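Data availability (excerpt). The following record was deposited with the supplementary files.
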Amino acid sequence: MKKETKATLENLLLVFQENANPYQAERMKAYMRNLFDFYGLQKDKRAELASPYLKELVASSEDNIDDIVKFLWKQPHRECQYIAMEYIMKLHKKWTPATLSLFEYMIANNSWWDTVDFIASSLVGKLFQKYPQLIMPSVQKWDNQNQFWFHRTTLIFQLKYAAKTDQHLLFVQCEKYMSSKEFFMQKAVGWALRQYSKFNVVAVREFVDAHQLSTVSLREAKKYL
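Predicted structure:
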């Protein structure tokens, strides 16, 4: 990583530390089941503080994209992972098929719904629209992963596809995981069906009627039916 880039990142962390809110930090940590430390920076405050540093990083990160994301991803405070996701999203025009490996790193590490859901629906989903040839090899690969966050990604990467959702793939993945005992998988099945029902209510109703979904999945899927 370039010396200037490292300095920008360190200055960003210093500013976050100087503006930390211990009271909010404890509340945010408790909300996330005490899995991550927080500076206690609410979204608007975090954006305000990070803005000048993000501009510097975006402007000078041509050869450091993976290094910057991974540096932030390894930090103990959750706000750093949020900034990493905002940073990589700003560089979406520079994404290539190779960017997928970075997204896989982000899914596999420091994993929880607050990062995985954004990565799946906003990053992976956008990358797959740009390079649709990546979809099936990735879904097949992730189905064989031991970590259920990858399985969740196969269900929700199409959340923003609207009427362009691949219905067949969606229903295949829902059938594959509808018997999961994991809450986050049950929620994802229902969430994916609920979102698609906005654009094809008949197909989703028929799917729901034909399958025995968990209580969690069914509750989510039927919200617009």
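Summary of structural features: The two ends are 51 Å apart (CA to CA).
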